[in-house]
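Progress report, Aim 2. The chain analyzed during this reporting quarter is listed below.
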Amino acid sequence: MAVRKTIQVVPRARRTLTSLRNLGYDLRHAVADIVDNSVSAYATTVDVTLHFAGTRSWIRISDNGHGMNAAELTEAFRYGSEREYDKTELGRYGFGLKSASTSQCRKVTVASRADTPGATLEARQLDLGHVDQVDDWEIFDLAPEELPEAAYSALREGSGTVVLWEDLDHLLQYQDPTGGWAKKQLLAGAADVDQHLGMVFHRFIAGEVPDRQPLRITVNGTPVEAWDPFCRNESSTTALQEEDLEVRTRHGNGIVHLSPFILPPQNQFSSPDARKRASGPKNWNRQQGFYIYRGNRLIQSGGWCRLRVLDEHVKLARISLDFFPELDKAFGVNVAKASVTLPQELRDLLGPRVSTWSKVADAVYRGKQPSNTPPKRSRPPRSVPTQQAPASPSVPKSNDPYRRDTPSNKPAHPYTPLPSPQASAASSQLPDTEPFLARQALEAAAAQTGETEALSRIVSTLRSMSPEVARDLGW
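Predicted C-alpha coordinates for the chain:
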Protein backbone atom coordinates (compact mmCIF):
# COMPACT_ATOMS: atom_id res chain seq x y z
CA MET A 1 0.00 0.00 0.00
CA ALA A 2 1.42 3.37 -1.01
CA VAL A 3 2.21 5.88 1.72
CA ARG A 4 -0.10 8.84 1.42
CA LYS A 5 1.43 12.28 1.24
CA THR A 6 0.70 14.54 4.20
CA ILE A 7 0.63 18.30 4.50
CA GLN A 8 0.96 20.04 7.85
CA VAL A 9 -1.71 22.68 8.45
CA VAL A 10 -0.87 24.91 11.40
CA PRO A 11 -3.79 26.91 12.85
CA ARG A 12 -3.65 30.67 12.42
CA ALA A 13 -2.62 32.04 15.79
CA ARG A 14 -4.63 35.28 15.64
CA ARG A 15 -8.01 33.76 14.74
CA THR A 16 -7.55 30.63 16.88
CA LEU A 17 -6.72 32.61 20.02
CA THR A 18 -9.71 34.86 19.42
CA SER A 19 -11.94 31.77 19.35
CA LEU A 20 -10.31 30.20 22.40
CA ARG A 21 -11.11 33.30 24.43
CA ASN A 22 -14.76 32.22 24.44
CA LEU A 23 -14.77 28.78 26.06
CA GLY A 24 -17.41 29.61 28.66
CA TYR A 25 -15.38 31.19 31.44
CA ASP A 26 -16.66 34.00 33.59
CA LEU A 27 -14.40 35.77 36.11
CA ARG A 28 -15.03 33.46 39.07
CA HIS A 29 -14.49 30.28 37.04
CA ALA A 30 -11.38 31.73 35.41
CA VAL A 31 -9.80 32.56 38.78
CA ALA A 32 -10.79 29.15 40.16
CA ASP A 33 -9.05 27.46 37.23
CA ILE A 34 -5.80 29.25 38.09
CA VAL A 35 -6.22 28.27 41.75
CA ASP A 36 -6.56 24.66 40.55
CA ASN A 37 -2.96 24.91 39.38
CA SER A 38 -1.92 26.25 42.78
CA VAL A 39 -3.64 23.32 44.50
CA SER A 40 -1.94 20.87 42.13
CA ALA A 41 1.38 22.51 43.05
CA TYR A 42 0.61 21.82 46.75
CA ALA A 43 0.41 25.48 47.66
CA THR A 44 -0.72 26.24 51.20
CA THR A 45 -1.36 29.93 50.49
CA VAL A 46 -3.02 31.55 47.48
CA ASP A 47 -3.52 35.31 47.31
CA VAL A 48 -5.93 36.82 44.79
CA THR A 49 -5.78 40.57 44.21
CA LEU A 50 -8.12 42.62 42.01
CA HIS A 51 -6.66 46.12 41.59
CA PHE A 52 -8.56 48.96 39.95
CA ALA A 53 -6.53 51.58 38.09
CA GLY A 54 -8.69 52.40 35.09
CA THR A 55 -7.18 51.02 31.89
CA ARG A 56 -4.18 49.84 33.95
CA SER A 57 -6.28 47.64 36.24
CA TRP A 58 -4.95 44.17 36.90
CA ILE A 59 -5.73 40.85 38.59
CA ARG A 60 -3.05 38.73 40.25
CA ILE A 61 -3.07 35.18 41.63
CA SER A 62 0.07 34.21 43.56
CA ASP A 63 0.92 31.05 45.50
CA ASN A 64 3.71 29.38 47.46
CA GLY A 65 3.52 26.04 45.64
CA HIS A 66 6.24 23.94 44.04
CA GLY A 67 6.76 26.37 41.16
CA MET A 68 8.09 25.61 37.66
CA ASN A 69 11.47 25.56 35.98
CA ALA A 70 12.16 27.18 32.61
CA ALA A 71 11.09 24.21 30.47
CA GLU A 72 7.93 23.57 32.51
CA LEU A 73 6.91 27.22 32.38
CA THR A 74 7.36 27.42 28.61
CA GLU A 75 5.35 24.21 28.15
CA ALA A 76 2.61 25.62 30.39
CA PHE A 77 1.99 28.28 27.71
CA ARG A 78 1.41 25.70 25.01
CA TYR A 79 -2.26 25.09 24.17
CA GLY A 80 -2.88 21.42 24.84
CA SER A 81 0.34 21.17 26.83
CA GLU A 82 1.27 17.58 27.49
CA ARG A 83 2.70 16.24 30.74
CA GLU A 84 2.08 13.52 33.27
CA TYR A 85 -0.92 14.33 35.48
CA ASP A 86 -1.15 12.87 38.95
CA LYS A 87 -4.56 11.35 39.64
CA THR A 88 -5.16 13.84 42.44
CA GLU A 89 -4.53 16.85 40.17
CA LEU A 90 -7.42 19.09 39.24
CA GLY A 91 -6.14 19.95 35.76
CA ARG A 92 -6.52 17.59 32.84
CA TYR A 93 -6.68 19.28 29.42
CA GLY A 94 -3.62 21.51 29.14
CA PHE A 95 -5.81 24.54 28.38
CA GLY A 96 -6.58 26.02 31.80
CA LEU A 97 -3.84 28.61 32.32
CA LYS A 98 -4.10 30.05 28.82
CA SER A 99 -7.85 29.84 28.24
CA ALA A 100 -8.83 31.03 31.72
CA SER A 101 -6.40 33.95 31.51
CA THR A 102 -7.20 35.15 28.00
CA SER A 103 -10.93 34.88 28.71
CA GLN A 104 -10.42 37.91 30.96
CA CYS A 105 -7.38 39.76 29.62
CA ARG A 106 -5.14 40.38 26.61
CA LYS A 107 -1.83 40.14 28.44
CA VAL A 108 -0.90 37.38 30.89
CA THR A 109 2.45 37.21 32.66
CA VAL A 110 3.58 34.21 34.69
CA ALA A 111 6.65 34.25 36.94
CA SER A 112 7.72 31.14 38.81
CA ARG A 113 10.54 29.70 40.91
CA ALA A 114 10.84 25.94 41.31
CA ASP A 115 11.43 24.35 44.72
CA THR A 116 14.85 23.01 43.82
CA PRO A 117 18.19 24.19 45.25
CA GLY A 118 19.56 27.20 43.41
CA ALA A 119 16.45 27.60 41.23
CA THR A 120 16.25 30.91 39.38
CA LEU A 121 13.22 33.01 38.70
CA GLU A 122 11.64 32.33 35.32
CA ALA A 123 9.01 34.48 33.60
CA ARG A 124 6.98 34.25 30.39
CA GLN A 125 4.34 36.54 28.88
CA LEU A 126 1.59 36.01 26.33
CA ASP A 127 0.55 39.32 24.73
CA LEU A 128 -2.41 39.08 22.35
CA GLY A 129 -1.47 42.44 20.88
CA HIS A 130 1.84 40.95 19.73
CA VAL A 131 0.12 37.80 18.42
CA ASP A 132 -2.25 40.00 16.40
CA GLN A 133 0.74 41.68 14.78
CA VAL A 134 2.85 38.61 13.96
CA ASP A 135 0.00 36.06 13.64
CA ASP A 136 2.24 33.42 15.17
CA TRP A 137 2.40 31.36 18.37
CA GLU A 138 4.98 33.48 20.18
CA ILE A 139 5.47 34.36 23.85
CA PHE A 140 8.05 36.58 25.53
CA ASP A 141 10.85 35.24 27.73
CA LEU A 142 11.15 37.98 30.37
CA ALA A 143 14.15 38.77 32.52
CA PRO A 144 13.35 39.61 36.17
CA GLU A 145 13.94 43.32 35.52
CA GLU A 146 11.37 43.23 32.69
CA LEU A 147 8.58 41.99 34.92
CA PRO A 148 5.63 44.29 35.55
CA GLU A 149 5.80 45.77 39.04
CA ALA A 150 2.53 44.06 40.06
CA ALA A 151 4.11 40.66 39.35
CA TYR A 152 7.53 41.41 40.78
CA SER A 153 6.17 42.78 44.07
CA ALA A 154 4.36 39.51 44.82
CA LEU A 155 7.39 37.27 44.41
CA ARG A 156 8.74 35.53 47.48
CA GLU A 157 12.18 34.22 48.30
CA GLY A 158 10.99 30.62 48.18
CA SER A 159 9.20 28.67 45.50
CA GLY A 160 5.89 29.68 44.02
CA THR A 161 4.09 31.13 41.02
CA VAL A 162 2.54 34.51 40.17
CA VAL A 163 -0.06 34.90 37.41
CA LEU A 164 -0.79 38.49 36.39
CA TRP A 165 -3.64 39.56 34.10
CA GLU A 166 -3.45 42.99 32.43
CA ASP A 167 -5.56 44.76 29.82
CA LEU A 168 -8.83 43.42 31.24
CA ASP A 169 -10.86 44.03 28.11
CA HIS A 170 -13.57 41.42 28.81
CA LEU A 171 -14.10 42.47 32.40
CA LEU A 172 -14.08 46.26 31.99
CA GLN A 173 -16.33 46.63 28.97
CA TYR A 174 -17.28 50.26 29.50
CA GLN A 175 -17.04 53.35 27.37
CA ASP A 176 -15.23 54.91 30.32
CA PRO A 177 -13.04 52.18 31.90
CA THR A 178 -11.73 54.74 34.38
CA GLY A 179 -15.16 55.69 35.74
CA GLY A 180 -17.19 54.67 38.75
CA TRP A 181 -19.16 51.94 37.00
CA ALA A 182 -15.97 50.18 35.97
CA LYS A 183 -14.61 50.32 39.50
CA LYS A 184 -17.92 49.03 40.89
CA GLN A 185 -17.78 46.12 38.45
CA LEU A 186 -14.31 45.11 39.60
CA LEU A 187 -15.26 45.34 43.29
CA ALA A 188 -18.37 43.25 42.63
CA GLY A 189 -16.13 40.76 40.85
CA ALA A 190 -13.93 40.51 43.94
CA ALA A 191 -16.93 39.65 46.13
CA ASP A 192 -18.13 37.08 43.60
CA VAL A 193 -14.69 35.47 43.40
CA ASP A 194 -14.45 35.32 47.22
CA GLN A 195 -17.80 33.55 47.51
CA HIS A 196 -17.07 31.16 44.64
CA LEU A 197 -13.63 30.10 45.90
CA GLY A 198 -15.04 29.50 49.39
CA MET A 199 -17.57 27.11 47.86
CA VAL A 200 -15.42 25.35 45.25
CA PHE A 201 -12.41 24.73 47.51
CA HIS A 202 -14.26 24.41 50.84
CA ARG A 203 -12.80 20.98 51.58
CA PHE A 204 -9.25 22.24 51.03
CA ILE A 205 -9.79 25.40 53.08
CA ALA A 206 -11.38 23.47 55.96
CA GLY A 207 -8.51 20.96 56.03
CA GLU A 208 -10.76 18.01 55.13
CA VAL A 209 -8.59 16.57 52.34
CA PRO A 210 -6.34 13.73 53.58
CA ASP A 211 -2.59 14.27 53.38
CA ARG A 212 -3.01 17.99 52.64
CA GLN A 213 -2.40 21.00 54.83
CA PRO A 214 -5.34 23.41 55.03
CA LEU A 215 -5.35 25.86 52.13
CA ARG A 216 -5.41 29.58 52.95
CA ILE A 217 -6.93 31.73 50.20
CA THR A 218 -7.26 35.50 50.40
CA VAL A 219 -9.08 37.92 48.11
CA ASN A 220 -7.76 41.48 48.37
CA GLY A 221 -6.16 40.55 51.70
CA THR A 222 -9.30 39.08 53.30
CA PRO A 223 -9.25 35.34 54.10
CA VAL A 224 -11.83 33.31 52.18
CA GLU A 225 -14.17 31.32 54.43
CA ALA A 226 -15.08 27.76 53.55
CA TRP A 227 -18.76 27.36 52.70
CA ASP A 228 -20.07 23.94 53.71
CA PRO A 229 -23.13 23.18 51.54
CA PHE A 230 -24.28 20.51 53.99
CA CYS A 231 -24.31 22.57 57.19
CA ARG A 232 -22.66 19.79 59.17
CA ASN A 233 -22.10 22.11 62.12
CA GLU A 234 -25.85 22.48 62.57
CA SER A 235 -27.13 19.99 65.14
CA SER A 236 -30.40 19.50 63.24
CA THR A 237 -28.79 18.52 59.95
CA THR A 238 -29.61 14.93 59.03
CA ALA A 239 -26.85 12.84 57.43
CA LEU A 240 -28.45 9.96 55.53
CA GLN A 241 -26.74 6.69 54.66
CA GLU A 242 -23.53 7.02 52.62
CA GLU A 243 -23.14 4.70 49.68
CA ASP A 244 -20.64 3.64 47.01
CA LEU A 245 -22.05 2.87 43.55
CA GLU A 246 -20.13 0.93 40.94
CA VAL A 247 -20.74 2.57 37.57
CA ARG A 248 -19.91 0.81 34.31
CA THR A 249 -19.90 2.91 31.15
CA ARG A 250 -18.49 2.63 27.64
CA HIS A 251 -15.98 5.32 28.68
CA GLY A 252 -14.74 3.39 31.70
CA ASN A 253 -15.78 1.88 35.00
CA GLY A 254 -15.44 3.38 38.46
CA ILE A 255 -16.90 4.17 41.84
CA VAL A 256 -19.21 7.07 42.72
CA HIS A 257 -19.55 7.97 46.40
CA LEU A 258 -22.83 9.43 47.68
CA SER A 259 -23.38 11.30 50.94
CA PRO A 260 -26.96 12.63 51.23
CA PHE A 261 -27.87 15.37 53.70
CA ILE A 262 -31.17 16.92 54.73
CA LEU A 263 -30.68 20.45 56.08
CA PRO A 264 -32.73 21.80 58.99
CA PRO A 265 -36.00 23.63 58.39
CA GLN A 266 -36.05 27.37 58.98
CA ASN A 267 -36.97 27.27 62.68
CA GLN A 268 -34.25 24.75 63.58
CA PHE A 269 -31.18 26.66 62.42
CA SER A 270 -28.90 27.87 65.19
CA SER A 271 -29.38 31.50 64.11
CA PRO A 272 -30.90 33.60 61.31
CA ASP A 273 -27.37 34.41 60.08
CA ALA A 274 -26.53 30.70 59.89
CA ARG A 275 -29.63 30.03 57.82
CA LYS A 276 -28.90 32.96 55.52
CA ARG A 277 -25.36 31.72 54.91
CA ALA A 278 -26.68 28.20 54.29
CA SER A 279 -28.87 29.52 51.45
CA GLY A 280 -25.74 29.71 49.27
CA PRO A 281 -24.78 31.88 46.29
CA LYS A 282 -27.88 30.90 44.27
CA ASN A 283 -30.34 30.93 47.17
CA TRP A 284 -32.30 28.03 48.63
CA ASN A 285 -34.30 26.56 45.76
CA ARG A 286 -31.45 26.57 43.26
CA GLN A 287 -28.99 25.11 45.79
CA GLN A 288 -30.94 21.89 46.30
CA GLY A 289 -29.74 18.72 44.65
CA PHE A 290 -26.31 17.39 43.72
CA TYR A 291 -22.92 18.76 44.73
CA ILE A 292 -20.53 17.02 42.39
CA TYR A 293 -16.83 16.74 43.27
CA ARG A 294 -13.83 15.60 41.33
CA GLY A 295 -10.62 15.30 43.34
CA ASN A 296 -12.33 17.05 46.29
CA ARG A 297 -12.89 20.11 44.10
CA LEU A 298 -16.55 21.13 43.67
CA ILE A 299 -17.61 21.27 40.02
CA GLN A 300 -21.40 21.52 40.23
CA SER A 301 -23.29 23.14 43.10
CA GLY A 302 -26.96 22.23 43.15
CA GLY A 303 -29.50 21.03 40.60
CA TRP A 304 -30.94 17.58 39.99
CA CYS A 305 -29.30 16.92 36.61
CA ARG A 306 -32.76 16.53 35.04
CA LEU A 307 -33.69 13.67 37.39
CA ARG A 308 -36.42 15.85 38.91
CA VAL A 309 -37.45 19.50 38.96
CA LEU A 310 -36.56 22.07 41.58
CA ASP A 311 -39.19 22.13 44.31
CA GLU A 312 -39.71 24.35 47.34
CA HIS A 313 -40.67 21.30 49.40
CA VAL A 314 -37.41 19.44 48.76
CA LYS A 315 -35.05 22.41 48.95
CA LEU A 316 -33.45 20.99 52.12
CA ALA A 317 -31.98 18.00 50.23
CA ARG A 318 -28.31 18.29 49.23
CA ILE A 319 -26.29 15.30 48.06
CA SER A 320 -22.51 15.08 47.90
CA LEU A 321 -21.44 13.05 44.86
CA ASP A 322 -17.75 12.22 44.36
CA PHE A 323 -16.48 10.62 41.19
CA PHE A 324 -12.98 9.41 40.53
CA PRO A 325 -10.39 9.84 37.75
CA GLU A 326 -11.35 6.69 35.86
CA LEU A 327 -14.77 8.28 35.22
CA ASP A 328 -13.46 11.62 33.93
CA LYS A 329 -14.49 10.94 30.35
CA ALA A 330 -17.83 9.45 31.36
CA PHE A 331 -18.75 12.62 33.28
CA GLY A 332 -17.75 14.92 30.43
CA VAL A 333 -16.21 17.69 32.53
CA ASN A 334 -15.88 20.82 30.39
CA VAL A 335 -12.65 22.82 30.09
CA ALA A 336 -13.86 25.52 32.48
CA LYS A 337 -14.76 22.83 35.06
CA ALA A 338 -18.14 24.49 35.44
CA SER A 339 -20.43 21.61 34.50
CA VAL A 340 -20.65 17.84 34.13
CA THR A 341 -22.98 15.37 32.45
CA LEU A 342 -24.07 12.34 34.44
CA PRO A 343 -23.58 9.11 32.50
CA GLN A 344 -26.86 7.34 31.75
CA GLU A 345 -25.75 4.27 33.70
CA LEU A 346 -25.45 6.42 36.83
CA ARG A 347 -28.73 8.21 36.15
CA ASP A 348 -30.50 4.85 36.19
CA LEU A 349 -29.05 4.10 39.62
CA LEU A 350 -29.81 7.55 41.02
CA GLY A 351 -33.46 7.74 39.96
CA PRO A 352 -35.01 5.75 42.84
CA ARG A 353 -32.61 7.29 45.33
CA VAL A 354 -33.58 10.82 44.31
CA SER A 355 -37.21 9.87 44.89
CA THR A 356 -36.42 8.64 48.39
CA TRP A 357 -34.25 11.62 49.37
CA SER A 358 -36.96 13.95 48.10
CA LYS A 359 -39.60 12.30 50.30
CA VAL A 360 -37.38 12.57 53.37
CA ALA A 361 -36.67 16.24 52.60
CA ASP A 362 -40.38 16.91 52.08
CA ALA A 363 -41.18 15.30 55.44
CA VAL A 364 -38.60 17.44 57.24
CA TYR A 365 -39.77 20.57 55.42
CA ARG A 366 -43.37 19.93 56.54
CA GLY A 367 -42.30 19.48 60.15
CA LYS A 368 -42.71 15.72 60.39
CA GLN A 369 -39.23 15.28 61.84
CA PRO A 370 -39.19 15.08 65.67
CA SER A 371 -36.96 17.91 66.87
CA ASN A 372 -35.80 16.24 70.09
CA THR A 373 -35.33 12.67 68.89
CA PRO A 374 -31.63 11.74 68.59
CA PRO A 375 -30.85 10.07 65.28
CA LYS A 376 -29.57 6.52 65.05
CA ARG A 377 -26.63 5.47 62.96
CA SER A 378 -26.26 2.25 61.05
CA ARG A 379 -22.49 2.59 60.92
CA PRO A 380 -19.82 4.83 62.52
CA PRO A 381 -19.42 8.35 61.08
CA ARG A 382 -16.44 9.03 58.86
CA SER A 383 -15.07 11.62 61.22
CA VAL A 384 -11.39 10.67 61.02
CA PRO A 385 -9.30 8.76 58.50
CA THR A 386 -9.39 5.05 59.28
CA GLN A 387 -6.42 2.74 59.21
CA GLN A 388 -6.37 0.73 56.02
CA ALA A 389 -6.31 -3.05 56.32
CA PRO A 390 -2.93 -4.66 55.50
CA ALA A 391 -2.51 -5.45 51.86
CA SER A 392 -2.87 -9.00 50.66
CA PRO A 393 0.52 -10.59 49.88
CA SER A 394 -0.70 -11.13 46.32
CA VAL A 395 -1.47 -7.44 45.77
CA PRO A 396 1.43 -4.92 45.76
CA LYS A 397 0.98 -1.84 47.91
CA SER A 398 -0.10 1.13 45.80
CA ASN A 399 0.89 4.75 46.17
CA ASP A 400 -2.35 5.76 44.47
CA PRO A 401 -4.49 7.62 47.05
CA TYR A 402 -7.62 6.58 45.15
CA ARG A 403 -7.00 2.87 45.71
CA ARG A 404 -7.21 0.71 48.81
CA ASP A 405 -4.48 -1.83 49.54
CA THR A 406 -6.92 -4.74 49.45
CA PRO A 407 -7.46 -7.55 46.95
CA SER A 408 -10.65 -5.89 45.70
CA ASN A 409 -8.60 -2.80 44.81
CA LYS A 410 -11.73 -0.64 44.78
CA PRO A 411 -11.20 3.15 44.78
CA ALA A 412 -11.21 4.63 48.24
CA HIS A 413 -13.20 7.73 49.01
CA PRO A 414 -10.53 10.49 49.24
CA TYR A 415 -12.67 12.85 51.32
CA THR A 416 -13.06 12.46 55.08
CA PRO A 417 -15.91 14.71 56.31
CA LEU A 418 -15.42 16.59 59.54
CA PRO A 419 -17.71 15.37 62.33
CA SER A 420 -20.88 17.37 62.80
CA PRO A 421 -22.65 17.41 66.17
CA GLN A 422 -25.45 15.13 65.02
CA ALA A 423 -23.07 12.68 63.36
CA SER A 424 -20.95 12.46 66.49
CA ALA A 425 -23.96 11.38 68.53
CA ALA A 426 -25.39 9.01 65.98
CA SER A 427 -26.50 8.72 62.39
CA SER A 428 -29.19 9.83 60.21
CA GLN A 429 -32.00 7.40 60.46
CA LEU A 430 -34.58 9.27 62.45
CA PRO A 431 -37.50 7.04 63.50
CA ASP A 432 -39.92 8.60 61.05
CA THR A 433 -37.42 8.43 58.16
CA GLU A 434 -36.54 4.74 58.63
CA PRO A 435 -39.34 3.57 56.26
CA PHE A 436 -38.03 5.87 53.57
CA LEU A 437 -34.52 4.49 54.02
CA ALA A 438 -35.86 0.94 53.85
CA ARG A 439 -37.60 1.84 50.61
CA GLN A 440 -34.35 3.40 49.36
CA ALA A 441 -32.46 0.17 49.99
CA LEU A 442 -35.13 -1.97 48.26
CA GLU A 443 -35.38 0.30 45.20
CA ALA A 444 -31.60 0.58 44.94
CA ALA A 445 -31.17 -3.20 45.14
CA ALA A 446 -33.88 -3.71 42.49
CA ALA A 447 -32.28 -1.15 40.17
CA GLN A 448 -28.81 -2.64 40.56
CA THR A 449 -29.99 -6.19 39.86
CA GLY A 450 -32.27 -5.20 37.00
CA GLU A 451 -35.39 -6.27 38.89
CA THR A 452 -37.24 -2.95 38.93
CA GLU A 453 -40.28 -4.47 37.19
CA ALA A 454 -40.36 -7.32 39.70
CA LEU A 455 -40.27 -4.85 42.57
CA SER A 456 -43.13 -2.94 40.94
CA ARG A 457 -45.24 -6.11 40.96
CA ILE A 458 -44.31 -6.77 44.60
CA VAL A 459 -45.32 -3.23 45.55
CA SER A 460 -48.64 -3.63 43.78
CA THR A 461 -49.34 -6.83 45.71
CA LEU A 462 -48.20 -5.27 48.97
CA ARG A 463 -50.67 -2.42 48.52
CA SER A 464 -53.47 -4.99 48.35
CA MET A 465 -52.28 -7.31 51.12
CA SER A 466 -50.82 -4.80 53.60
CA PRO A 467 -51.80 -1.25 52.64
CA GLU A 468 -50.55 0.19 55.95
CA VAL A 469 -47.06 -1.23 55.40
CA ALA A 470 -47.03 0.08 51.84
CA ARG A 471 -48.05 3.52 53.09
CA ASP A 472 -45.31 3.50 55.76
CA LEU A 473 -42.75 2.74 53.06
CA GLY A 474 -44.05 5.61 50.92
CA TRP A 475 -45.60 3.37 48.22
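The first helix runs from residue 13 to 20. The first strand starts at residue 45 and ends at 51. These observations will guide the mutagenesis work planned for the next reporting period.
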